[in-house]
């Protein structure tokens, strides 16, 4: 596959998702980057901003199997990964696979379940395998998690541990639509009374697992010159020398940023990475990996502002 084909594939996927979802272009762009760089994405936004519909439409346009888990306080790890259950008719144990055995998994309201259950996703997100009773079971090579959480509610939620957050390539803030977009939503979606599905809005698959694998292989060949590598390194190391931050980004964050920049370059029709690719992706990649110092929290500083300051301070190569 050539880089122009990757760009065309990305545009086709965006057009199909746009049949069901009004606006949210930046969110869909980040999901495409995550897909082609083998990452996962966390969507944070208030209820009713189409987070679930985006994930479902995205999976349908890709031609991937879609699974959804509604996280609740009483959800157990076995409810996600599955278990070996005893069959009284055969007097043998048989494996019952959980909903995690899919290609694109929507982890809806992931912060509503305790850390013990959240941790059931750790191995799957990092290694694309699941271990049940000592047996390692492989997930699809295309396995991707799209998780959502509501930033408004504070009762009955369990903040994601840092180890869990670090598994997500991006954390994207899903904002309310503009006035024009909201009017279009009310005019079109308000006329429907049945459950909104991608099929109902005419979304059709424009890719499949094999086509996506070809695109990922092409993305892995995108050139990353030494100057851009040094720039990524400077950004990551720069997060560890800021007084407003108690904890900076890990080396894994730098490796993920390089892979994501390659995917963005290919989606933009280039076979080489430029500093603007890194700049555009750095906020979404760093915002959930940095921890503010107590003094910065008291002063009302935001991680977003600190990240912007770091990007503005470090000179990009020309």
From TrEMBL:
<dbReference type="InterPro" id="IPR041628">
    <property type="entry name" value="ChlI/MoxR_AAA_lid"/>
</dbReference>
<dbReference type="GO" id="GO:0016887">
    <property type="term" value="F:ATP hydrolysis activity"/>
</dbReference>
<protein>
    <submittedName>
        <fullName>Magnesium chelatase</fullName>
    </submittedName>
</protein>
<dbReference type="Pfam" id="PF17863">
    <property type="entry name" value="AAA_lid_2"/>
</dbReference>
<keyword id="KW-0067">ATP-binding</keyword>
<feature type="domain" description="AAA+ ATPase">
    <location>
        <begin position="37"/>
        <end position="178"/>
    </location>
</feature>
<dbReference type="InterPro" id="IPR011703">
    <property type="entry name" value="ATPase_AAA-3"/>
</dbReference>
<dbReference type="GO" id="GO:0005524">
    <property type="term" value="F:ATP binding"/>
</dbReference>
<dbReference type="InterPro" id="IPR027417">
    <property type="entry name" value="P-loop_NTPase"/>
</dbReference>
<comment type="similarity">
    <text>Belongs to the MoxR family.</text>
</comment>
<dbReference type="Pfam" id="PF07726">
    <property type="entry name" value="AAA_3"/>
</dbReference>
<dbReference type="InterPro" id="IPR003593">
    <property type="entry name" value="AAA+_ATPase"/>
</dbReference>
<keyword id="KW-0547">Nucleotide-binding</keyword>
<dbReference type="InterPro" id="IPR050764">
    <property type="entry name" value="CbbQ/NirQ/NorQ/GpvN"/>
</dbReference>
């Amino acid at each position: 596959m050539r880089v122009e084909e990757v760009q065309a594939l990305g545009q086709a996927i965006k057009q199909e998702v746009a049949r069901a979802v009004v606006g949210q272009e930046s969110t869909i762009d980040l999901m495409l980057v995550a897909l082609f760089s083998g990452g996962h994405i966390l969507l944070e936004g208030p209820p009713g901003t189409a987070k679930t519909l985006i994930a479902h439409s995205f999976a349908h346009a890709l031609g991937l199997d879609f699974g959804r888990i509604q996280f609740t306080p009483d959800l157990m790890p076995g409810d996600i990964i599955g278990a070996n259950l005893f069959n009284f008719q055969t007097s043998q144990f048989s494996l019952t696979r959980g909903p995690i055995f899919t290609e694109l998994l929507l982890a809806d309201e992931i912060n509503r379940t305790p850390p013990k259950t959240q941790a059931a996703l750790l191995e799957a997100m990092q290694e694309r395998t699941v271990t049940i009773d000592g047996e390692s079971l492989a997930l699809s090579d295309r396995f991707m998690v799209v998780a959502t959480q509501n930033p408004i509610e504070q009762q009955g939620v369990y903040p994601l541990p840092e180890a869990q957050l670090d598994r997500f390539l991006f954390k994207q803030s899903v904002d309310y639509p503009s006035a024009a977009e909201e009017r279009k939503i009310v005019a079109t979606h308000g006329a429907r009374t049945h459950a909104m599905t991608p099929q109902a809005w005419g979304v059709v698959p424009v890719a499949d697992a094999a086509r996506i694998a070809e695109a990922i292989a092409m993305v892995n060949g995108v050139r990353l010159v030494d100057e851009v590598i040094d720039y990524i390194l400077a950004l990551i190391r720069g997060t560890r020398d800021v007084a407003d931050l108690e904890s900076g980004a890990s080396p894994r964050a730098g490796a993920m940023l390089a892979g994501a920049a390659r995917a963005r370059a290919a989606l933009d029709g280039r076979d080489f990475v430029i500093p603007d690719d890194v700049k555009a992706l750095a906020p979404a990649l760093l915002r959930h990996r940095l921890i503010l110092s107590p003094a910065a929290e008291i002063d009302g500083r935001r991680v977003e502002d600190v990240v912007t300051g770091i990007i503005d301070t470090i000179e990009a190569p020309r």
